[in-house]
Amino acid sequence: MIYPELVKINEELKTRGGQVVKFNCNKDNKELGKQLGIKVAPTFHLYRGREKLGEMTGAKVDKLREMIEANL
């Protein structure tokens, strides 16, 4: 349901040097999901390089956009 909005956000971010990366916490990636502290889906982490700038859970597109804008 949120995927089409993530595609739009990704297109907008491309012009600003950013990108949205999708990561599935399935059985193949379970350990990495634990290391990242992901407990619910969707979870969004915002990074610049290796520095984590923000995190949120839930399919709240407006809140996600706010978090991105506050950190660009």
From TrEMBL:
InterPro entries: Thioredoxin-like_sf, Thioredoxin_domain. SUPFAM superfamilies: Thioredoxin-like (SSF52833). Residues 1-69 form the Thioredoxin domain. It comes from the Eukaryota. This is Thioredoxin domain-containing protein. It comes from Monoraphidium neglectum.
